[in-house]
Amino acid sequence: QEPNVTGYLCVGLEYDSESADLMVNVLEAKDLSSSDVNHPAHLPLDTYVRVYLLPDKSTNMQTRVYKKSNSPSYKERFLFALEPTEYQRRSLSFYVYATDRTSNSLLGEAELRLCDVNARQPVTTWLTLTDTGQTNTELGEVMFSLSYLPTAERLTVVLVKARNLKFQRESGDPFVKVYLLQHGKKVHKKKTSTKRGERSPIFNEAMMFSVPPHTLQTIHLRVTVSESGLAGAHAVNIGHVIVGSQCTGKALTHWTQMLTSLRKPIAMWHPLRSK
């Protein structure tokens, strides 16, 4: 299954090997679209872009929010320190978010390997944005938002919805369990209500966990989508997602972006896996 294309992003790069500076210009985007059923495709979006110099996820830059446009013109430049000996080994990662009053949702992402770009001259290129949650989704997907409030030592998970769930029976009654794991052991567990016979249920249910800041590097969240059993039978797990600082890929991205934008919830789709 091909990833879902959600738009295109134009970026410019310029490298100064003498000062060891990489200049990244986030110029504009076009044809941005949201895969969110709550947001009709033709409605204009408020968006911003985050830029990471991989593999270091801690240094990231962010554009201002560009309002009410599916072809926004950001025209912002960012400077990353980058030694010439490191140039070939690094990549740039671009995340485009839609934002509203309540949360930020990932629209699409693109990666650019610097070894594919000539360091000796300025380069401008269009990148294809994809919603990576679309790939590898035999079991379905779940969307949830994460936010952390250090002053209250509170981690909030909002289970927004799921889509294309693969039930064991003809029609299932899905619900979601969220486990807080410390060093791999289950410390807390919460669950949503059950939705009757819905393959793409909408939950919009918040769960709060008490999490001291010093534990953030050692905890994980496990989000498990299940279908309730027939009268008296055990529930059956459809699939799960694990997010946390020890994870990789999108699960790590979601966690680190929660920690770097402490005020607003960050929402993403995640494909369910069985193992």
Automatic annotation (TrEMBL):
SUPFAM superfamilies named among the record's database cross-references: C2 domain (Calcium/lipid-binding domain, CaLB)
One Pfam family, short name: C2
Superkingdom of the source species: Eukaryota
Molecular function per GO: calcium ion binding; calcium-dependent phospholipid binding; clathrin binding; phosphatidylserine binding; SNARE binding
Xref: Gene3D superfamilies: C2 domain (2.60.40.150)
Gene Ontology, cellular component aspect: exocytic vesicle; plasma membrane; presynapse
UniProt keywords, alphabetically: Repeat
Biological process annotations from GO: calcium ion-regulated exocytosis of neurotransmitter; synaptic vesicle endocytosis
Stretches assigned to the C2 domain: 5-127, 138-270
Protein name: C2 domain-containing protein
Species name: Graphocephala atropunctata
